């Protein structure tokens, strides 16, 4: 079963609001093949028919908006003024924006530029084929048994997101799900992100 031609009622959220403290340089603007890392991630996400695509930014938000431009009506920048509070604040900023007619949110990390499109496709197939939107459900890819991103959070789980705090992201609400579906995927980039300089060099080497 291929992806439907019409837009999928899922909100894709790309998290990129942090200060990149461990890297020492601002990750979203680090170049990969001559383009900012965040632009590569967003281009990949926008290639899928999501109803909405949001990039949540905070630190150096103005620089990012000036450096990256998409002429796509589905795309919006969300500025998280509380970005210092961690991932949870960015997720809450995203769910507080836009329309609520969605089957759920698919949360991406802005520092996973080599995530394969086939991984996104596989996650979407599970969501669509199992008709998970109406249930309290989490869908998450795994690589060698390790959970990764992107993570799907169904619409009925969204109210729980309003309670999260700190830098754990959405993990604390997973226990409220009726189903937590793990999708084994042969894509190491679901669990690898860019935190340190050697991570970035690894990404650059693989993108050549």
Plain-language structure description:
This protein is of the alpha/beta class and about 210 residues long. The chain has one domain (about 10-205): Alpha-Beta Complex (Spore Coat Polysaccharide Biosynthesis Protein SpsA, Chain A). Helix content is about 25%, strand content about 25%. The protein has six helices and ten strands, in the order βββαβαβαβαβββαβα. It has helices at about 35-45, 60-65, 85-95, 115-130, 160, 195-205; strands spanning about 10-15, 30, 35, 50-55, 75-80, 105-110, 135-145, 145, 150-155, 180-185. The strands form two sheets. Strands 1, 4, 5, 6, 7, 8, 9 and 10 form an eight-stranded mixed sheet that branches. Strand 4 (about 50-55), helix 2 and strand 5 (about 75-80) form a beta-alpha-beta unit. The termini are far apart. About 40% of the residues are buried.
Q: Give a count of the beta strands, DSSP E runs of length 2 or more.
A: 10
Low-confidence stretches: none
Counting helices, strands and paired strands, the structural category is alpha/beta
| CATH fold label | Spore Coat Polysaccharide Biosynthesis Protein SpsA, Chain A
What order do the helices and strands follow?
EEEHEHEHEHEEEHEH
Count of discrete domains: 1
**What fraction, in percent, of the residue positions are helical?**
25-40%
- The CATH superfamily appears as Spore Coat Polysaccharide Biosynthesis Protein SpsA, Chain A
What is the approximate shape? globular
Rg computed from alpha carbons, rounded to a whole number of angstroms: 16 Å
